[in-house]
């Protein structure tokens, strides 16, 4: 819109049944500051009364890294290829980064509408802001972890390469997977609170069917099946970027998982948008 | 007056009330689907009841109008505001709005207790639709209006409720929309603050020539602020006129009542437990259709409640409000230091106020039921009753009294002879 037209009398806003569609994406852009504010609120509030503060974003994944290393490497003796024993925790950590990002974003987005119900029933804004801000919060947590992980990798002798430049692609991919799934869960939770439990359950299964604690290089028979889980490629992508070529990358799996991701995001958006107009009435 | 900035045409909003499966649990859906897959559609229709919160509303608001919206609870006022502020969609009809709208349906929406006053100003401002730079520009004004400058960096959970409300209103009052929609926000805060808010709203309307839509139970505020008013009754537009004319229709409408009021179908908020519910209300002694008491006569009410199994102890709370919306007095059976014990089924509870000498005029009664588990039922404006002048009141000279009640007083004298 040019400067001159906005100086004139702006077009009237029309409210009609089924008419919310029209300005939705423009409104989403107009409310982008709110997206930032909500994410900032959640980050701030979370650490406000915690003595260890932001350290909590690191403590839990660290313990998880060593637990998963112990289970998959020491007990289950999963092969590690050209990754040395002392580097196995890095393999796990590189898998845990996208997993943490996904699970944080997915559960945050899944609960977002219900936990912000006081806003939804009192103020107008494009509701998509709410799950989006949960994804942003998870992203910030992951950045903290990434900042810790990089020096550790260098200490273990793995230095960043040009592949690191592709990392943002996989970060974005993981967030899109989480958003797609989160949109489904959060719209369904508004009506059926059962989906809170279902999403917690899905996460518990997810950490095992996603190659977080192991690498798929040595499971050729299972690769296509694992690739149906769109996170598999994201995990492999993270490893490929961070571990400087110590792991393989399975291209066919990437296309499979991109297809699944796209379907999830589009259907998630579709379902969110058709249920959105009823949120304030049902919540 | 300017041209219309809001045009509402044939606006209706339907809610579907489900009597069964009210919890919306997936379990209920699945269970009934399994039990009888073919009947599912039929029973769904039978248990769902349609409720028109608004029906065929037409009106328009001109630039610079201050429109008051009045009506009993459940008349559709809040639904209308929610549709105008785009929180919920209409079922049918069309609204066209010219200009930027800000709506204030609640004071302090989105305030977070853990965040400081400063942080909440930014957060709340963003939620209400201000940009960061607008908030920064208004920041000092907001702080000055709220009078919280000393506590700006304290988490608002440590604020007194007065400070909290002042800060919340201050943020909202400094929005600069072309159209401002306000719902019953003046019901909070102390009298001085309410005056300040009304003053601020007057400024917004008169000086800046902005359009304001204003819902309130406080008729005084409506009469003082508004240039026009509409009256909603059971979802329909009953009247659209000067505020005094509409207020008179509203007051007359409220007097039209039954001797025994059925409370079952009254609109309630949905956060009530409702294991004990208010069923009906009549005057204790000789019930009248007009619900009038003469001055000095003890006020007596008789309420019936229905309880489910497992509720034993019950508190009955009542509050009396003046017609203009000020709380005159409230109490519960706890003042007698006793719990009401109810068995499952219907129980009648009567209560008397022997010594409250209400000044002749109109009053409302609010009722609430509480059990140890929480709030069971709550109704506002259960009845509008009237206190009439009598020989007794003439003796007290009540026509010169501007208070709500005349305390029973004794005066004793001790005379000292001058030395």
What descriptors fit this protein?
heterodimer; A: 283 residues; mainly alpha; 13 helices; globular; disordered N terminus; B: 419 residues; alpha/beta; Rossmann fold; Coagulation Factor XIII, Chain A, domain 1; 6-stranded mixed sheet
Set down the secondary structure blueprint.
The complex is a heterodimer of chains A (283) and B (419).
Chain A: H1 3-7, E1 13-16, H2 24-30, H3 32-48, H4 56-75, H5 88-115, H6 117-120, H7 129-155, H8 167-191, H9 194-209, H10 223-227, H11 230-242, H12 251-276, H13 279-282
Chain B: E1 4-18, H1 26-35, H2 40-47, E2 48-62, E3 66-70, H3 77-84, E4 92-97, E5 101-104, H4 117-127, H5 132-146, H6 161-173, E6 179-183, H7 191-206, E7 211-215, H8 219-225, E8 228-233, E9 236-241, H9 243-255, E10 260-262, E11 276-283, E12 292-294, E13 299-307, E14 313-322, E15 327-332, E16 340-341, E17 345-353, E18 361-371, E19 374-388, H10 391-396
Helix pairs in contact in B: 4-5, 4-6, 5-6, 6-7
> What is the SS-derived class of chain A?
mainly alpha
Gap between N and C termini of chain A, in Å?
36 Å
Radius of gyration of chain A, in Å, reads 21 Å
Order of strands in the sheet with most strands of chain B: 5-6-7-3-8-9
Count of strand segments of chain A: 1
Q: Biggest interface pair, residues each?
A: A-B, 37 and 43 residues
Count of individual domains of chain A: 1
Give a description of the structure:
The complex is a heterodimer of chains A (283) and B (419). Chain A has 283 residues and is mainly alpha-helical. Chain A has one domain. Chain A contains 13 helices and 1 strand, in the order H-E-H-H-H-H-H-H-H-H-H-H-H-H. The radius of gyration of chain A is 21 Å and the shape is globular. The two termini of chain A are 36 Å apart. The model of chain A is unreliable at 1-8 (pLDDT under 50). Chain B has a 6-stranded mixed sheet with strand order 5-6-7-3-8-9, with helices on both faces. The model of chain B is unreliable at 40-46 (pLDDT under 50). In chain B, helix 4 (117-127) packs across helix 5 (132-146), helix 5 (132-146) crosses helix 6 and helix 6 packs parallel to helix 7 (191-206). The longest helix of chain B has 16 residues, at 191-206. In chain B, 26% of the residues lie in helices and 34% in strands. Chain B has helices at 26-35, 40-47, 77-84, 117-127, 132-146, 161-173, 191-206, 219-225, 243-255, 391-396, and strands spanning 4-18, 48-62, 66-70, 92-97, 101-104, 179-183, 211-215, 228-233, 236-241, 260-262, 276-283, 292-294, 299-307, 313-322, 327-332, 340-341, 345-353, 361-371, 374-388. Chain B is globular, with a radius of gyration of 25 Å. With 419 residues, chain B is an alpha/beta fold. At the A-B interface, strand 1, helix 3, helix 6 and helix 13 of A face helix 1, helix 3, strand 4 and helix 4 of B. Strand 1 of chain A pairs antiparallel with strand 4 of chain B, so a sheet runs across the interface.
């Amino acid at each position: 819109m040019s400067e001159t037209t906005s100086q004139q009398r702006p077009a009237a806003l029309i409210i009609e049944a089924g008419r919310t569609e029209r300005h939705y994406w423009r409104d989403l852009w107009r409310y982008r500051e709110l997206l930032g504010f909500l994410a900032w609120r959640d980050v701030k509030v979370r650490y406000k009364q915690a003595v260890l503060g932001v350290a909590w974003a690191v403590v839990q994944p660290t313990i998880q890294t060593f637990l998963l290393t112990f289970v998959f490497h020491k007990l289950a003796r999963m092969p590690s290829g050209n990754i040395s024993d002392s580097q196995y925790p890095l393999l796990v950590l590189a898998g845990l980064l996208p997993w943490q990002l996904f699970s944080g974003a997915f559960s945050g987005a899944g609960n977002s509408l219900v936990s912000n119900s006081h806003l939804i029933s009192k103020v107008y804004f494009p509701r998509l802001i709410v799950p989006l801000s949960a994804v942003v919060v998870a992203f910030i947590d992951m950045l903290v972890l990434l900042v810790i992980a990089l020096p550790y990798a260098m200490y273990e002798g793995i230095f960043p390469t040009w592949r690191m430049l592709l990392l943002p692609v996989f970060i974005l991919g993981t967030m899109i997977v989480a958003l797609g799934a989160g949109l489904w869960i959060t719209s369904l939770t508004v009506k059926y609170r059962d989906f809170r439990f279902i999403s917690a359950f899905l996460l518990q299964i997810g950490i095992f069917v996603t190659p977080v604690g192991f690498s798929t290089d040595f499971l050729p028979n299972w690769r296509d099946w694992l690739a149906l889980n769109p996170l598999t490629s994201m995990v492999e992508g993270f490893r490929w970027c961070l571990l400087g070529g110590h792991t393989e990358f399975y291209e066919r799996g990437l296309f499979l998982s991109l297809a699944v991701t796209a379907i999830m995001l589009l259907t998630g958006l579709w379902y969110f948008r058709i249920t959105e107009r009823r949120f304030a009435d049902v919540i | 007056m300017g041209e219309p900035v809001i045009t509402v045409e044939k606006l209706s909003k339907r809610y579907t009330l489900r009597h069964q499966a009210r919890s919306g649990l997936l379990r209920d859906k699945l269970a009934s689907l399994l039990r009888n897959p073919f009947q599912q559609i039929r029973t769904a229709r039978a248990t769902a009841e349609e409720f028109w919160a608004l029906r065929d509303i037409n009106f328009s608001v001109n630039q610079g109008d201050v429109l008051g919206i009045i009506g009993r609870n459940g008349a559709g006022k809040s639904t209308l505001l929610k549709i105008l502020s785009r929180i919920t969609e209409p079922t049918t009809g069309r609204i066209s709005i010219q200009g930027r709208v800000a709506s204030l349906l609640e004071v302090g929406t989105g305030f977070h207790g853990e965040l400081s006053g400063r942080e909440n100003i930014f957060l709340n401002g963003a939620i209400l639709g201000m940009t960061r730079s607008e908030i920064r520009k208004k920041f000092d004004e907001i702080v000055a209006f709220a009078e919280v400058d000393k506590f700006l960096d304290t988490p608002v959970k440590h604020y007194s409720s007065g400070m909290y409300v002042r800060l919340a209103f201050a943020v909202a009052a400094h929005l600069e929309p072309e159209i401002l929609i306000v719902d019953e926000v003046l019901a909070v805060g102390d009298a001085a603050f309410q005056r300040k808010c009304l003053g601020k709203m007057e400024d917004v309307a008169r000086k800046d020539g902005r359009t304001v839509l204003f819902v309130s139970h406080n008729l005084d505020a409506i009469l003082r602020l508004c240039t026009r008013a509409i009256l909603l009754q059971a979802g329909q537009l009953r009247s659209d006129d000067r505020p005094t004319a509409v207020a008179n229709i509203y007051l007359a409408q409220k007097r039209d009542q039954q001797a025994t009021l059925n409370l079952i179908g009254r609109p309630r908020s949905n956060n009530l437990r409702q294991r004990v519910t208010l069923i009906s209300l009549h005057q204790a002694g000789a019930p009248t259709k007009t619900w009038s008491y003469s001055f000095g006569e003890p006020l007596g009410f008789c309420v019936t409640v229905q309880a489910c199994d497992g509720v034993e102890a019950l508190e009955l709370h009542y509050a009396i409000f003046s017609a203009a919306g000020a709380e005159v007095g409230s109490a519960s059976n706890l003042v007698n230091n006793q719990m009401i014990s109810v068995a499952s089924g219907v129980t009648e509870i009567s209560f008397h106020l022997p010594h409250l000498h209400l000044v002749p005029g109109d009053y409302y009664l609010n009722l609430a039921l509480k059990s140890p588990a929480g709030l069971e039922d709550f109704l506002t404006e259960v009845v509008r009753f009237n206190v009439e002048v009598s020989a007794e009141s003439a003796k007290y000279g009540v026509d010169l009294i501007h208070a709500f009640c005349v305390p029973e007083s004794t005066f004793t004298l001790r005379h000292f002879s001058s030395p």
